[in-house]
TrEMBL record, chain A:
Keywords, in A-Z order: Cell membrane, Membrane, Transmembrane, Transmembrane helix
Signal peptide: none
Native source organism of the sequence: Nocardioides seonyuensis
Compartment(s) where it occurs, according to its Swiss-Prot or TrEMBL record: Cell membrane
Topological type in the membrane: Multi-pass membrane protein
InterPro entries given in the database record: ABC_transp_permease
Gene Ontology molecular functions: transmembrane transporter activity
Lineage: superkingdom: Bacteria
Transmembrane spans: 23-43, 64-83, 110-132, 144-162, 197-215, 296-315, 327-347
Cell membrane found in the keyword field: yes
Keyword Isomerase recorded: no
Protein name in the entry: ABC transporter permease
PANTHER family documented for this protein: ABC TRANSPORTER, PERMEASE PROTEIN, GUANOSINE ABC TRANSPORTER PERMEASE PROTEIN NUPP
From TrEMBL, chain B:
Coiled coil: none
Entry's transmembrane regions: 51-73, 80-100, 106-128, 135-156, 162-184, 191-209, 249-266, 299-319, 325-342, 349-369, 375-393
Presence of keyword Membrane: yes
Lineage, top ranks: Bacteria, Bacillati, Actinomycetota, Actinomycetes, Propionibacteriales
Subcellular location: Cell membrane
Pfam families to which the protein is assigned, alphabetical: BPD_transp_2
Protein keywords: Cell membrane, Membrane, Transmembrane, Transmembrane helix
Source organism of this protein record: Nocardioides seonyuensis
Descriptive protein name: ABC transporter permease
Chief location bin: membrane
Keyword Transmembrane in annotation: yes
GO CC, alphabetical: plasma membrane
PANTHER family: GUANOSINE ABC TRANSPORTER PERMEASE PROTEIN NUPQ, SUGAR ABC TRANSPORTER INTEGRAL MEMBRANE PROTEIN-RELATED
Superkingdom: Bacteria
One Gene Ontology molecular-function label: transmembrane transporter activity
Automatic annotation (TrEMBL), chain D:
Species classification: Bacteria, Bacillati, Actinomycetota, Actinomycetes, Propionibacteriales
ABC transporter domain location: 3-239, 255-499
GO terms, molecular function: ATP binding; ATP hydrolysis activity
Protein source organism: Nocardioides seonyuensis
Membrane topology listed for this record: Peripheral membrane protein
Protein name: ABC transporter ATP-binding protein
Length: 355, 408, 345, 504
């Protein structure tokens, strides 16, 4: 039935110019119908019998949430200090590439290998983020510009490294893709082979906890907040604003880097590619804002986005909703979530008419 | 206090060029083409002995660097003419070296820089206007894309690219309207709305592109291109003519809009009020200016301008819409807004610098630069970082930028 | 791209048979005017012949490959076409987990073994059929033709991004032009590709970067240009128009003359990469239960790659060109004219 | 124009800012509103001006009920207001600020700046202001900005003028000039509402006085009442207007500044080779018209200025060249002149603001963590001790009235273990009750043997606190004189002249 409505969408799309209202009515119906699919794909699948398969969507949601949460924290901490870090893409790419390099190149026992790969990835991303912070602190260069530009620089850097067999490229292959990760560098599955959920999610949760403590309990967080709320007052109070910017961008880079690491060592372990960021660097901005830059808010927003992603596949395959409409639905959900008064206005309308 | 930055940058650049010339000497002539085949006045090609010319220009650079240091020691800023001469000599010297054995069309060097910058300038103007009124517009990308989309369809169905331009403006304004609804009326964080709108537009245009445009490409997605229309007389001036006045009407429109926006923003009542609302909405309110109404109007206009930039993609660069064809230009435009310190002229210059660097990158690669293409492709981005860090420094946004205005 | 339109009534009809072909795109999407689109069209054609529905799934990012495959498996697909080297790993994984499903992988050999370095010339999973195309061979012919056609002695090429599936065209093109120069003792210069590196627009969007790169190449007095990468040829089209000169363009993947009528005035020829046919055949074979897992390599010999007719340029190319090309083609097929590419290095 | 407010109530959440306030202002009358910080004066005026809708009550002008939907309507009706927090756009020129909202335009909406300039000049001349119409507001000293606000109101020919604490940032001379202007306006038949905390001013111009406390009218006062009577009516208890301070117990030369020179980014010399000494247990007051280098002097001491030469020694240790943090660590307490920008983080709670410059060391910090228990205890204590009127320590600083914000800053600085106190405009915009309190605290700090540098443009304050007075003019010291130097002499010195009978 829902499939039929989607076909209705397509049909009406054909005569869009003749009858636009039909089209939008159809879209709306399809969107509405999509929710069930979304739910089935993101939380609980009621169409299968065994419990493990039933809750599998939930674990998928968690898997997708991991990097979104980590990167969301990275963008969020920037916001708390008054910095707009659009550099998630570049930071993730470099983190993924560096972690990947360690992951496929070295031969080490897992206990050393995995942590080393994670730390290297995060450290490289931290430096990349810190670079934007340093430029801001030293020259006043606006972080929005530098991070956007550094995204591209990182992208081409990774692309280049993927053509050098002494760096990332698989020897003997011409494709811009590295070797797969060694088993000792792969984030282990949390719930066994049947589920894709891996340690990356737990790391993201740990990051949430750490960030919560840092922002709400530590003096560093206190100073970051002070700088974010009033750089002038912070300066008079002896807080070195420039140094704080650098620190924040280092931390932000490391957190976004965790998301990148999560990608190469957890979600797609088959090797480093130039697209490993998978748009998460940008999604993280919305996640951070939706979560009001608070660690727990980001956790919630990250879970929501993870659910939207996981559910999106089911929406596409089983409901025949094009991947593009999935994007549309996702963005509408976010917009309306961000504007509770608007939603209230919409839903109050009928009640007013009733009077 | 005079900043050390300028003499240092100038010195380092001079040194860098010297090292290039010393380390990678080449032999041969460099041909500079000063006219295009189609030009009215055919200036002859200039053929220079590459290395010798480069060395001469390097010496000019060194002298200018010396003057800059001298100015610094006298605690004076480096005079603008010194910087101008330096920039010219450095670029010319570098090109003399880089183009040895090849042909370099000077006209194309600049004309293409403008062409590459056009959508960025439109986008940046849209951004500048919005932010001047206190509304951060991250949705430039979405406005460009939607503008490109609407322009292609409308121009195809009506058969008139001009109708396409109007549709692009409407499309851009439509996005601005949504931005306004959420950000101004419902106080949703402007950055969220912007980012999400970009995603929304990608989704919508991709969907329609596939479902509607691709199957009906002949009727819906094959607009007539806005072609180059040389301006009589002006277009025949040697060098300048082909660079500035042998462009598409959209580019002429751009000249007009840049001038108009710059003028209106600083010289008219409308501009004064827009700026007031972006700097101190409460103060504007206390003198009876309707803050949110002004903001709405301004972003609608800004959206229309950005939308026009979108039309450049589907009516000028190529004819027809393609999925995600703006490829991040909106974000570069956003950077130009900030780089240009929220000023229409400076933002335009910032976009032009970016356009120049992208074009240079391609030109050098075609001439056979030994640097890997990935690094060449980085050039415009790296140049921007250096320019922002080295020359621009701190920039101050309009004080109320991004802050919704609510009374209590 | 005609297909998506007549899909509108596909959903309501019951499937004629229970054969379910499926296809996953890479991040380019099915309207990329390149391999995703051709793969889709081929699979669609096969599905239509069987009177069944094709289940297409697009990916937005590399994160989506595995889940998309998973959900297709869950949907009960019998054959899954995956497009692009980027999907190789996900395909291998899915294939390993679902030995009953047949996989068709376009543009990658799925070879390399567990460690990614053990190449045995076969796909690592027995149920994957790789479809590969030695487009350098066809591009060689195009380079030869271009060199012959060029009056300025300069021909040019540029790509979207420096990926091997892109540069293989540029490689063959350059070799063909050089072969021509050597044979004829003429001076032919290839602009935009030096055998290792060259001009790229930095993406696969038809935008000003694409147009401008083409212009820069044309500025070097080039009169035949080969843009490689989805819709970026549209930039060349614009650049040619703006230059006001007689410049010919060479298309890639499919016959541009047919797929984009706007180009008919300027396409000299196109380098054909038989993705549509080979995908069609693979899916068809799967539906008829005579699927084989031998890697398919499209060559001039098996007509998996080739060049399109000269169409409007028929009477502009030199008279002997077609026969020379036939000779060169035979030479390539019998190995007397070596063409190197990443597939045979 | 006659104004009548009837039963105006305005609530902010649970705070009742004004509680059924009624008020009448006749044409040709200067009506003073007196009240403590946070009494609701500004709120009442903002309601009148259409900025906030009233929850209850009505506004009548010449007997007619008004329904303002915004300030535009109020201005239209002939109300002009000089706001407590300036409503000027810093990056605009004076003319642009003045013309905003009722711009004269020429062809195609182009601004007629010439007309605006003319208008500014005309009004300036009428009232004896010296204002460059093309100067950017942000470059002007606050006193001048104040005049721009007045010109703005006058340029619209308002019939009713509201002055909300216009004198808080003015020098004595400027204040006198403003009083004169108000009298002129009154003569011209305008109705004036004047809000101030300075009783001297009230007595100088008021025709009628209404006292507000805790959002309610508590009564009218006679303009001839004594300062003490007014003050106690306002605060609801007797107030000591002059702080009793004992003889200074002078210690050694604890704070020594030599040849200090401060240059700004544009190369202007703001502090020009000045040298002075403050002894332990002494208050040195720095007097001078705003903008004569006081700000730069205090900022240079704090390490907030970039280009400083000379020497700044505290207890023999050099402070110049140290970071702000090190200066603070050396025991320097600093009350910055602009509390909203430099003194407080307005979105932080009171408690959080109380540890603003102690985020590195104990008592509020242990191993990188903030000790919130200690902080809260401390904050509760200070809230009581300094009588900060706030819901509790978790109120945001930005919600507090100006006086209460100032108390938070003072509480923070004075509760540290100080070796030197620098207080810039410590009681700007603060009500009499709080002034008394803050002055007492400063004197008590002196009596603990701490050298104190007070910067003030307020001669009353200088007289109340100073053991010695240093007058600055254009970055140079005009003279350092005893604390009991007469007002007139000081006033003269502030114009750069140095009377002969003054001993250094
Ligand atoms: N003025 C400052 N503003 C902001 N952060 C600072 C400042 N000084 C130090 N930090 C940060 O505090 C942390 C501790 O630094 P550091 O080791 O210098 O502190 P400390 O040992 O307390 O100081 P010191 O050794 O100078 O007495 C570091 O993260 C540092 O970046
Ligand atoms: N926008 C607001 N939101 C919430 N509370 C407010 C707001 N404005 C004022 N208040 C509260 O209303 C009360 C009255 O404030 P108001 O500014 O009118 O005082 P005031 O008499 O002008 O004080 P001062 O002399 O310090 O200027 C105070 O308790 C203040 O905290
Ligand atoms: Mg007040
Ligand atoms: Mg230390």
């Amino acid at each position: 039935m829902i499939a039929a409505t989607d076909d209705a969408v397509r049909e009406s799309a054909g005569y869009l110019f003749a009858a636009p209202t039909d089209f939008f009515a159809a879209v709306w119906e399809a969107v509405w119908g999509a929710y069930t699919a979304l739910f089935r794909g993101a939380v609980y699948n009621d169409r299968v019998d065994d419990f493990a398969t039933q809750i599998r969507p939930l674990t998928e949601t968690l898997k997708y949430s991991g990097p979104l949460i980590a990167a969301g924290l990275g963008v969020g901490i920037g916001f708390r200090a008054g910095l707009f870090n659009i550099g998630g893409r570049g930071q993730m790419l470099l983190a993924g590439a560096a972690a990947g390099y360690v992951g496929f190149k070295l031969d080490l026992p897992m206990i050393v290998h995995l942590p080393l790969a994670i730390v290297v990835g995060m450290a490289v991303a931290a430096l990349w983020g810190g670079l934007a912070g340093l430029l801001k602190a030293r020259t006043g260069a606006h972080e929005v510009i530098t991070t956007i530009m550094l995204n591209w620089v990182a992208y081409y850097l990774v692309l280049w490294a993927l053509k050098q067999s002494y760096l990332l490229q698989t020897p003997g292959s011409a494709n811009p893709k590295s070797l797969p990760m060694k088993d000792t560098a792969i984030l282990p599955d949390l719930l066994g082979d049947r589920f894709n959920l891996h340690l990356g999610f737990l790391l993201a949760i740990v990051a949430v906890a750490v960030m919560w403590w840092v922002m709400n309990r530590s003096t560093l967080g206190y100073r970051i907040r002070a700088v974010g709320e009033s750089p002038t007052a912070a300066r008079v109070a002896g807080i070195d604003v420039g140094r704080t910017y650098v620190t924040v961008m280092l931390i932000a880079g490391a957190l976004v880097g965790l998301a990148g690491v999560n990608q190469t060592l957890g979600t797609t372990t088959s090797g480093v590619t130039p697209d490993l960021d998978a748009g998460i660097g940008f999604d993280a901005i919305t996640v951070a804002l939706l979560g009001r830059s608070r660690p727990l808010g980001i956790l919630a927003a990250g879970l929501l986005f993870g659910a939207l992603k996981a559910g999106g596949f089911t929406m596409q395959t089983s409901e025949n909703i094009s991947v593009d409409l999935v994007l549309v639905v996702q963005s509408l959900i976010v917009l309306f979530l961000a504007a509770p008064p608007l939603v209230r206005a919409i839903f109050r309308l009928p009640s007013k008419e009733a009077k | 206090m005079v900043s050390k930055k300028t003499p240092i940058i100038v010195g380092v650049l001079t040194l860098a060029l010297a090292i290039i010339l010393l380390r990678r000497g080449k032999s041969g002539d460099t041909t500079f083409r000063l006219a295009r085949d189609s030009d009215f006045v055919q200036l002859p090609d200039v053929v220079l002995p590459g290395m010798v010319s480069a060395w001469v220009l390097l010496i000019v650079c060194a002298v200018m660097a010396g003057l800059s240091v001298l100015a610094y020691t006298r605690t004076r800023p480096t005079p603008a003419w010194v910087l101008a001469v330096f920039a010219f000599a450095w670029m010319a010297g570098f090109l003399c070296w880089a183009a040895i054995g090849g042909r370099l069309s000077v006209v194309s060097l600049f004309a293409s820089a403008i062409a590459l910058a056009v959508p960025l300038v439109f986008g940046a103007l849209g951004g500048v206007l919005g932010e001047r009124a206190g509304v951060v517009n991250i949705a430039i990308e979405g406005q460009l894309l939607f503008g490109a989309f609407a322009a292609a369809i409308t121009a195809s169905t009506t058969g008139s690219p001009w109708a396409g331009l109007i549709a692009a403006m409407v499309a851009g304004a439509l996005i601005a309207l949504v931005l306004g609804l959420f950000a101004i009326t419902y106080y949703v964080d402007q950055v969220i709305v912007g980012v999400v709108l970009n995603v929304l537009v990608v989704g919508l245009t991709n969907f329609f592109f596939r479902q509607v445009l691709t199957p009906n490409a002949a009727s819906l997605n094959s607009p007539d291109r806005l072609s180059v229309i040389p301006i009589p007389v002006l277009g025949d001036i040697p060098l300048i003519g082909p660079v500035l006045f042998r462009q598409t009407p959209l580019v002429y429109l751009l000249y007009g809009i840049v001038a108009l926006v710059a003028f209106a923003l600083y010289r008219t009542r409308w501009g004064l009020r827009v700026r007031a609302v972006g700097e101190h909405p409460m103060a504007a309110d206390t003198v009876g200016i309707k803050v949110n109404r002004t903001r709405y109007r301004t972003i609608l206009l800004a959206g229309a301008i950005a939308g026009l930039g979108g039309a450049y993609f589907s009516l000028v660069s190529v004819s027809g819409f393609n999925r995600e064809m703006t490829g991040g230009a909106g974000y570069i435009a956003l950077a130009a807004v900030i780089f240009g310190k929220w000023d229409p002229i400076r933002a335009t210059l910032a976009a032009l610098l970016f356009g120049f660097a992208s074009n240079l990158q391609g030109v050098l690669k075609v001439l056979g630069s030994p640097v890997p293409s990935e690094f060449m492709l980085m050039l415009p981005y790296v140049v921007t970082i250096f320019a922002v860090a080295g020359l621009v420094g701190r920039s101050r946004p309009p004080a109320a930028d991004g802050i919704p205005y609510r009374k209590e | 791209g005609e297909e998506p339109a007549d899909e509108a009534n596909g959903g309501n009809e019951p499937a004629a048979s229970d054969f379910l072909p499926c296809i996953v795109s890479d991040a380019g999407g099915f309207d990329d005017k390149s391999f995703n689109q051709l793969g889709y069209e081929g699979a669609k054609q096969a599905a239509d012949e069987f009177g069944v529905e094709l289940k297409p799934v697009e990916s937005n990012s590399e994160n989506d490959y595995a889940p998309n495959l998973e959900s297709l498996v869950a949907e009960g697909c019998d054959v899954i076409v995956t497009v692009g080297f980027a999907l190789a790993a996900a395909t291998k994984e899915s294939a390993a987990a679902n030995p009953d499903i047949e996989y068709v992988l376009i543009d990658d050999s799925a070879d390399g073994g567990e460690d990614g370095q053990t190449f045995d010339g076969k796909a690592d999973q027995p149920n994957i059929k790789p479809l590969l195309y030695d487009t350098a061979q066809a591009a060689f012919l195009a380079g030869y033709a271009a060199a012959d056609f060029s009056k300025t002695g300069k021909i040019g090429t540029y790509g979207g991004m420096p990926f091997p599936t892109v540069t293989i065209f540029m490689d063959g093109f350059k070799q063909g032009a050089e072969y021509y120069a050597e044979e004829k003792g003429k001076d032919v210069k290839v602009v935009g590709w030096n055998g290792k590196d060259g001009s790229f627009t930095g993406g696969f969007e038809a935008n000003e970067a694409a147009t401008n790169t083409a212009k820069q190449i044309i500025d070097q007095d080039v009169d035949v240009i080969l843009p490689v990468g989805g819709p970026i040829y549209e930039g060349a089209l614009t650049a040619i128009e703006d230059s006001g000169k007689d410049i010919a363009m060479i298309g890639v993947d499919a016959d541009l003359y047919e797929t984009d009528p706007n180009t008919q005035e300027v396409v000299l020829t196109s380098i054909l990469k038989g993705m549509k046919v080979s995908t069609y055949e693979a899916v068809k074979a799967a539906g008829e239960d005579n699927f084989d897992f031998e890697p398919y390599v499209g060559t001039l010999e098996n007509d998996g790659v080739g060049i399109a007719p000269f169409h409007n340029f028929e009477d502009q190319v030199s008279e002997s060109l077609q026969s020379e090309l036939d000779e060169v083609k035979a030479g390539i097929i019998d190995g007397s004219i070596p063409v190197t590419s990443y597939l045979n290095q | 124009m006659k104004l009548e407010l009837r039963g105006i109530t305005k609530r902010f959440g649970s705070v009742v800012a004004t509680n059924r306030i009624s008020l009448t202002v006749e044409p040709g009358e200067i009506h003073c509103l007196l009240g403590e910080n946070g009494a609701g004066k500004s709120t009442l005026m903002n309601v009148l001006y259409g900025l906030y809708p009233a929850d209850e009550g009505e506004i009548l002008l010449d007997g007619e009920v008004q329904h303002f939907t915004g300030p535009g309507d109020a201005m239209e009706a002939g109300i002009g207001m000089v706001h407590q927090h300036f409503m000027l756009i810093p990056v605009f020129s004076v003319s642009e600020n003045v013309m905003l909202g009722h711009e004269a335009t020429g062809f195609a909406g182009t601004l007629d700046l010439a007309a605006a300039r003319e208008r500014v000049r005309e009004i300036s001349e009428r009232f004896g202001f010296h204002i460059d119409p093309d100067a950017l507001v942000e470059d002007l000293p606050v006193g001048v900005q104040q005049r721009v606000e007045i010109i703005k109101a006058l340029s619209r020919d308002a019939e009713l003028l509201v002055f909300d604490e216009p004198t808080a940032v003015l020098t004595p001379q400027e204040t006198d000039e403003l009083m004169e202007i108000m009298r002129q306006l009154k003569e011209a038949g305008k109705a004036i509402v004047f809000i101030t905390h300075k009783l001297r001013e009230v007595r100088a111009v008021a025709d009628r006085i209404t006292v507000i406390r805790l959002g309610k009218v508590v009564g009218e006062a006679d303009p001839k009442a004594t300062n003490a009577e007014l003050a106690s009516l306002m605060v609801g208890r007797p107030v000591e207007l002059v702080v009793h301070k004992g003889e200074a117990q002078l210690g050694e030369d604890a704070f020594v500044v030599e040849d200090l020179r401060v240059v700004d980014a544009a190369g202007h010399v703001n502090v020009d080779d000045i040298s002075f000494t403050v002894r332990a247990g002494e208050i040195l007051a720095v007097a001078g018209v705003q903008g004569n280098g006081q700000t730069e002097l205090t900022e240079a001491i704090m390490g907030l200025q970039d280009h400083v030469t000379g020497s700044i020694r505290l207890d023999g240790k050099e402070l110049r060249g140290r970071s702000v943090r090190k200066v603070l660590d050396a025991g320097v307490g600093f009350i910055p002149e602009d509390r909203q920008v430099d003194g407080l983080v307005s979105s932080f709670t009171i408690a959080e603001n109380l540890m603003l410059n102690r985020s590195f060391k104990s008592p509020f910090v242990r191993r990188g963590a903030v000790r919130f228990d200690v902080l809260r205890e401390f904050a509760d204590e200070k809230l009581k001790e300094y009588d900060v009127r706030a819901r509790d320590i978790d109120s945001e600083a930005g919600e507090l009235s100006g006086g209460n914000q100032q108390k938070v800053v003072v509480a923070r600085e004075l509760s540290r273990d100080l070796r030197l106190l620098i207080a810039a405009q410590p009681t700007r915009g603060v009500d009499v009750g709080s002034i008394e309190f803050i002055h007492k605290q400063i004197v008590a700090t002196r009596d603990r043997g701490v050298p104190v540098l007070v910067v003030s443009t307020e001669l009353d304050e200088v007289a109340a606190l100073a053991d010695r007075i240093m007058v600055l003019y254009r970055g140079k010291i005009v003279g350092i004189v005893p604390g009991d130097t007469p007002r007139e002499t000081l006033g003269l010195m502030m114009t750069g002249e140095r009377p002969k009978d003054v001993v250094a």
